[in-house]
Amino acid sequence: MLPGFWERLKTSIEAKLNKLLDNFEDPREQLDYAYDKLVQQLHDVEMALSRAITARKKLEFELERIDEKIEDLDDKAKRALKAGREDLARKALERKLVLVRQKKILEERIADMKEDEEKLLEVRDKLKTKIDLFKAKKEQLKAEYEASKAQVEVQEMVTGLSEDFTSAAEIIERAEDKVNEMKARAAALDELVATGGALDVLEPEEKDEIERELGKIELQSELEEELRRLKEEVGG
């Protein structure tokens, strides 16, 4: 009966444990929880073993008292026969036989309890070995998980930095293109202004040289202001 009971108990505990472990996202928490459950199981087995031993000891004490009573009744039966009181001897022997039967039942019960204790001892020893092995494996797995987690975090950081560098490089490239484009436009305008080309065509013929020079200065100032604004925009 006991082996079947322990097998059912083990299956039930493992099913409940697996269900609870699914609720943990961090495998380190799973390992610690499973280890604590194993330690609790060991404690329960040791408590059951202690209760079984205590119960057996009580029966053994009762068995000792029965032996004393049997010996006393046997002595009384002998004394009664010596005194010629066979009737008293018969009563003493009847009580002795009842106690002998009780003794046999107790001896069988004590033997069964000892077998149960042996099985509990076996379960306890196996559980202790399992706990020791699990503890070592648990610490190993936790260390491996922490190392892997740190490695992933570093890789994610490096990946993020690479993406940032790529984005920054693209921004710089676009800014350089805009600056070069603005420089080219400025150079082209300088050339047009200096040669009096396209700008002169748009200006009234009555403008004198001073106005043209002032116009070039104002245009150059606006160009520099526009270039400065664009640089600030690109830099930001």
Walk me through this protein's architecture.
- There is one protein chain.
- This protein is mainly alpha-helical.
- The model is unreliable at 198-203 (pLDDT under 50).
- It is built from five helices and no strands.
- It is rod-shaped, with a radius of gyration of 51 Å.
- Helix 2 packs antiparallel against helix 3.
- Helices cover 92% and strands 0% of the residues.
- The protein has two domains: 2-154, Helix Hairpins (Orthogonal Bundle); 166-235.
Q: Profile the largest sheet.
A: none
Shape designation: rod-shaped
Mean pLDDT level? 77
Count of runs of 4 or more consecutive helical residues:
5
* CATH class descriptor of the largest domain: Mainly Alpha
Low-confidence stretches: 198-203
As a percent range, the share of strand residues is under 5%
Which helices and strands appear, and what pairs or packs with what?
Layout lengths: L1 H20 L5 H56 L3 H110 L2 H5 L6 H27 L1
Helix pairs in contact: 2-3, 3-5
Key traits:
mainly alpha, Helix Hairpins
Summary of the model, kept short:
This protein is mainly α. It has helices spanning 2-21, 27-82, 86-195, 198-202, 209-235.
